[in-house]
Design a protein that fits this description.
Radius of gyration: 14 Å
Largest sheet: 5 strands, antiparallel
Number of strands: 5
Order of helices and strands: HHEEEEEHH
Distance between the termini: 30 Å
Structural class: alpha+beta
Oligomer: single chain
Number of helices: 4
Strand order of the largest sheet: 1-2-3-4-5
Shape: globular
Length: about 110
C-alpha cells in the first residue's frame, strides 16, 4: 500500500512512480531558491519564468520531487531530467561540478 499523506508521498515517489534520489538535495528546495517566482500547483509541479531566456510569463515547468524541468517556450526548449542537469545548465557546469555545487550549497 502507498502512503496517503501528501507530504510522505512527495518524498517517497514522483508522479511517475520513481523514487527520488537520496544522494541529492530536495529538488523542490533547490528550485525554490533558484527560481524566485516559482508557483506550485499542488500536484508536484510548479511553473516559473525561465532563467535560460528573457521570459516575462512563466514557461518553465518543473517537477518538485524528481527535478525534471522543461521550458515550454518554442524558441528555448531547455529541458533535463534532474536537479543536477538544471544546476549545470544554469551555471554552465559539467555534471561533476554541478553535483559539487549542490553538495556545498544545499542540505
Amino acid at each position: 500500500p502507498l502512503p496517503t499523506d501528501e507530504l510522505t508521498m512527495r518524498h517517497t515517489r514522483t508522479p511517475y512512480g520513481k523514487a527520488p534520489r537520496p544522494d541529492l538535495p530536495d529538488p523542490g528546495s533547490v528550485f525554490d531558491h533558484l527560481l524566485p517566482d516559482l508557483q506550485e500547483y499542488g500536484n508536484g509541479f510548479a511553473w516559473a519564468c525561465c532563467p535560460f531566456h528573457d521570459d516575462r510569463n512563466p514557461s518553465l515547468c518543473v517537477n518538485l520531487t524528481s527535478g525534471w524541468y522543461k521550458c515550454q517556450s518554442s524558441h528555448c526548449g531547455a529541458h533535463g531530467s534532474n536537479i543536477v542537469s538544471f544546476v549545470g545548465a544554469l551555471y554552465g557546469f559539467d555534471y561533476q561540478e554541478a553535483r559539487k555545487h549542490l553538495e556545498e550549497h544545499y542540505d
